[in-house]
Amino acid sequence: MNKRAWLVSLAVVGLVAAGCAKSSSGGGTTPTSTTGTGPTTTLTPQNGGTLSIGLDAETDGWNPTSSEWAGASYYVAQTIFDPLCSYDAAGQPHPYLAKSVTPNATYTVWTIGLRPGISFSNGQPLNAAAVVLQLTMAKASALVGQALGPMVKAVATNNLTVTVDMSQPWVAFPAVLASQVGFIAAPAQLKASGNAATNDPIGSGPFIFKQWIQGSTLTVTRNPNYWRKGLPHVNEIVFRVITDPTTRLQALESNQIQFMYTTEASQIKTYLSSSAEEMVEQFVDEPAFIMLNTDAAPLNDLRVRQALEYATNQQEINQTISLGLGSVATEPYAPTSPWYVASGYPTSPNLTKAKALIASYEHSKGLSGPLKFTLGCTDSGTNPEAMQLVQAQWQAIGVDVSLSYTEQATYINNAIFGSYQANCWTQFGSIDPDLDATWWLSANAHPIGAVALNFARLSDTTTDRELEIGRSNPNPAVRKAAYGQVWKQFAIEAPYIWLGRAPDGLIFSPNVHGLGLGTFPDGTKQLPLLHAGIDVPIDQLWLSS
Amino acid sequence: MASYVGWRFVRMVSVVFAVTLFTFLLLNLLPGSPINAILGPAAGDPAARAELTSQLGLNHPLFFRYFIWLGHAVRGNLGQSYISQESVSSAIGARLPLTLELMVMAEVISLGLAIPTAMLCSLRPNGWFDKFVSRSTLALLALPAFMLGELLIFVFSVKYHVFPASGETTWFTIGGGTSPAVVATPQSILLPSITLAAGQLALFARVLRGDLLATLKSEFILMARSKGFSRYYVLLHHALRPSSFSLMSLVGLSVGGLLAGAVVVENVFALPGMGTLLVTSIEKRDYLIVQGIVVLIATGFVTVNFITDALYGALDPRIRRARLIG
Amino acid sequence: MPDSSADTATRGGRRSRSVPGASPTDRAEEALKASLVQAASNAARVASAGNAAGTAGGGAGGIDSEIAALSHDALSAPAAHIDTGVKPRLGIGFWLAVAWMALVVFAAIFANVLPLPSPNKVLAGPPNQGPSWQHLFGTDLIGHDLFSQVVNGARISMLIGSTSVVVGLVVGGGMGIIAGFYRGFVDVIVVWITDVLLTLPGLILALTLVAFLGQSLENVILAIDLLSIPAYARIARATSLAISQRDFVLTALALGSKPRRILFRDVLPLVAIPIASYAAIGASIAILAEGALAFLGLSSPNSLSWGGMIAEGQQQLSTAPQVTFAPMIAFFVTIMALNYIGQRAGAALDPRQGRL
Question: Among A285, B225, C10, C266, which residue's Cβ finds the most Cβ atoms within 10 Å?
Answer without folding.
Answer: A285
